[in-house]
TrEMBL record:
InterPro entries: 6-blade_b-propeller_TolB-like (IPR011042). This is Dipeptidylpeptidase IV N-terminal domain-containing protein. SUPFAM superfamilies: DPP6 N-terminal domain-like.
Length: 175
């Protein structure tokens, strides 16, 4: 995939500057950009290790060397930004292999989340899902390859540990 950076153009001064240089400041391509209400930060999504994380970048300083000006707000699951309310709270949706989308509030610094909707609680209470794990192996060129290990629903630790037990296994790899 093509690497994506972020540039900002000031309509008054005509100045264009780079906030995030692709493949230099950050290893992941930003998408779904949105300004904070006060215009001090730019929010974006990035596919980091097979998760869609929400991130923010200081609109004045930019990413800086090694992405030090980027704050990764979410790390587990896949997230979408739906808006900002109040002065420091974001409305997001979150989902994972084990949970369909629900709405959450997220503090603007990523320090705290609170689930707002529970649309799927009843359905999930009566649904068997397979346990999901993350594994990493080494590729032919020595690079780590991250994969998802998805076990069958209801499969126990004892069954998994048994050398005679066979079970179907799905491994989703990327990179």
């Amino acid at each position: 995939a093509d690497a994506v950076g972020i540039m900002v153009h000031d309509l008054t001064s005509g100045e264009t500057r780079t906030l995030l240089e692709a493949e230099t400041d950050f290893d992941y391509s930003p998408s779904s950009l949105s300004w904070t209400k006060d215009g001090t930060r730019l929010l974006f999504a990035a596919d980091i290790r097979s998760r869609v994380s929400l991130c923010s970048i200081d609109a004045t300083k930019g990413a800086g060397p090694g992405g030090e000006g980027i704050t990764i707000l979410t790390t587990e699951g896949s997230h979408s930004l739906h808006g900002e309310y109040g002065t420091s709270t974001l409305l997001i949706s979150s989902q994972s292999f084990m949970a369909p989308p629900e709405l959450y509030s997220l503090t603007a610094d990523g320090s705290s989340t609170r689930q707002l909707t529970f649309f799927n609680r009843e359905r999930l209470s009566n649904t068997a899902l397979g346990r999901v794990g993350e594994i990493t192996c080494t590729g032919p060129s020595g690079d780590p390859i991250q994969s998802w290990l998805i076990r069958p629903a209801g499969f126990s630790d004892a069954e998994e540990a048994s050398p005679t037990q066979k079970f179907p296994l799905a491994v989703i790899y990327h990179g």
